[in-house]
Amino acid sequence: MRAFTYQRAATVAEAAAVAARTPGARFIAGGTNLLDLMKLEIETPTHLVDVNGLGLDRIDATPDGGLRIGALVRNTDLAADTTVRRDYGVLSRALLAGASAQLRNKATTAGNLLQRTRCPYFYDTNQACNKRTPGAGCAAIGGFTRGHAIVGQSDACIATHPSDMAVAMRLLDAVVETVNPDGAKRAIPIADFYRLPGNTPNLDTNLRPAELITAVTLPKPLGGRHVYRKVRDRASYAFALVSVAAVVQPDGTGRVAVGGVAHQPWRVPAADAALPQGGQAATTLLLAGARTTEENAFKVVLVQRTLDAIVKG
Question: FAD-binding PCMH-type domain location, by residue (predicted)?
Answer without folding.
Answer: 1-223
